[in-house]
Amino acid sequence: MMHRFVKGLLLGILFICSIGLLWFLVIQPFLTQKDAEHLKAQYSVLAPQTESAESNQDEGEKTQLDFASLRSHYPNVQGWLTIPGTCVDYPVVQSDADDPEYYLRRNYDGRWRLAGSLFFQYDCTPKSKNVVIFGHNMNDGTMFGVLEKLADQKFREQHSTIFLETEDGVREYQIASVLTTDLSRIPFNRTVFADEQDYLAFAGTMLEGTGYEPQAAKRLLTLVTCAYNWDGARTVVVAVEK
């Protein structure tokens, strides 16, 4: 009798653990993806057509985000990041210096989510010379789980463009490099520069060996997620404004 009881108890614990893993590793990331899709659908509006678009009958209707309405409900949503052809199509939020990782395990509306949100570093804006965005490296490939795939040249060539949409419009970036590094090697999260020469020197370090020439007028977009090569390692995608 005791043997059956222990066996049943162990099976019950195993079942509960399996359900827990399913919730954390599958359902939670799925909910995060669906949340983003719902938010984008809710606040998308038709983009004004240009003369060239009006003359092109084959061009489909384009949409843009109504940031005024979106931010009236979710004021911490500062932008929307998209890497076409990948799962990256998410809002980008931002908290302040008092709690810079507030959204590490929270959705754009503050609800707890294992995958958290993409978030701007607390001391940068979409207009910073180096725009820094963090996100989780999820095992299922969602959020910034795709960044390490961009280290593969063929995959990167097929997904080389990044769009960052904000209240000021859409900025397009070209991926220049994918690094596995840490802050002791490259200060990739710098957002404040003394002057133009200081920025150019920083950009030169970030773009070293890529063939890209640093330009004062061109922003960098730096996407950061965890890597597991060593303690403190990060996968860093560096993109240059087009």
Task: Please describe what this structure looks like.
The protein is an alpha+beta fold. Helix content is about 30%, strand content about 25%. It has 5 helices and 10 strands; from the N terminus they run αβαβαββββαββαββ. The chain has an 8-stranded mixed barrel with strand order 3-4-5-6-9-10-8-7. It has a two-stranded antiparallel ribbon with strand order 1-2. A hairpin with a 2-residue loop joins strand 7 (about 160-165) and strand 8 (about 170-180).
What's the total helix number?
A: 5
Strand content bin: 15-25%
Q: Based on CA inertia axes, which overall geometry fits?
A: globular
Q: Radius of gyration in whole Å, from Cα?
A: 21 Å
- How do the strands of the widest beta sheet line up side by side? 3-4-5-6-9-10-8-7
Order of helices and strands: HEHEHEEEEHEEHEE
Helix content bin? 25-40%
**Strand segment tally:** 10
Cα(first) to Cα(last) distance is 72 Å
- Structural class, from secondary structure content? alpha+beta
Low-confidence stretches: 5-12, 15-26, 52-57
Mean pLDDT: 87
Describe the biggest sheet?
8 strands, mixed, barrel
